Amino acid sequence: MAKETGLGWTALSVDDSGGTLRDIRNDITNFQFSTPRGVQDVTGIDKSAMERLLLLADMSITLNGVFNDGSNASHDVFKTVPSTSVAREFTLTVSGQTLGTTPTATILFTDYALTRAQDGSLTWSAPGVLANGAVPTWTSA
Description:
By secondary structure, this protein is mostly beta strands. The protein has a single domain (10-140), classed as Pnp Oxidase, Chain A. Helix content is 4%, strand content 45%. The chain has one helix and twelve strands. The protein has one helix spanning 74-78, and strands at 10-15, 21-23, 28-34, 37-41, 52-57, 60-66, 90-94, 97-100, 107-109, 113-116, 122-130, 137-140. Strands 2-1-7-8-12 form a five-stranded antiparallel sheet, with no helix packed on it. Strands 3, 6, 9, 10 and 11 form a five-stranded antiparallel sheet that branches. Strands 4-5 form a two-stranded antiparallel ribbon. A hairpin with a 5-residue loop joins strand 1 (10-15) and strand 2 (21-23).
């Protein structure tokens, strides 16, 4: 495909604490993820510009959504974040390209924050980081 908007093409699923992948995209209002690499500065004093080496891969993700305590919805997925230390699989599909934990990378969600705004809206945020050292990889779906 060519250039695209961010409308209507995303699938996003996250494991609940029992290890079952749940499609919670209907509850998610926006998300952010990054897949940075560490960098080591190896510039010698004989150089006039920076010289670097790439180091380990990493990943972070933040999901934001609307509170939904229905069966297998977002609250069911994230309500155990404060009380368990469960690494979770996830998949994010964008226009036929999937970034996810297949086959072995997992995410540790580090918070499940609820916000009740002045206007009465009830929303949540769930940040996560790479858990087990497997490199997050984009694949064609």
